[in-house]
Design a protein that fits this description.
It is built from four helices and no strands. With 99 residues, it is an all-alpha fold. It has one domain. The longest helix has 21 residues. The chain is globular. Bound molecules: iron/sulfur cluster. The site of iron/sulfur cluster has 14 residues, from helix 1 and helix 2.
Length: 99
């Protein structure tokens, strides 16, 4: 999926934008929507690579994303990192299922 079309598969595409740009306890409800989203990796990468500082993206709040960016200051492409991690997860998961 290229970087332009992932949003069309978003689990939240029918939501009002205000529902993802909330504060406090409402963020936990917004994050639940992300749990089953098929483009969670792309969404989170978009927010991290572009240093988006508001709203819930990819299941993380702005505060959680800031903490992640502080922990990993040398990452130059979150998209590449997260996609590699997802592929590894699928590969290892596939091996475990056939073992
Ligand atoms: S991960 Fe969450 S915020 Fe991102 S597209 Fe999916 S539902 Fe929307």
């Amino acid at each position: 999926m290229n970087s332009q079309d992932w949003a069309s598969a978003a689990a939240c595409k029918a939501q009002a934008p205000d529902e993802l740009f909330v504060k406090g306890a409402a963020q936990n409800r917004a994050k639940q929507l992300c749990q089953g989203c098929p483009v969670r990796t792309e969404c989170l990468a978009e927010a991290l690579d572009n240093r988006i500082e508001w709203g819930v993206w990819g299941g993380l709040t702005e505060r959680e994303r800031r903490a992640l960016l502080r922990r990993r200051p040398n990452v130059t492409s979150w998209r590449a990192l997260l996609e590699a991690a997802r592929e590894e997860h699928v590969r290892v998961g596939g091996q475990a299922a056939t073992a």
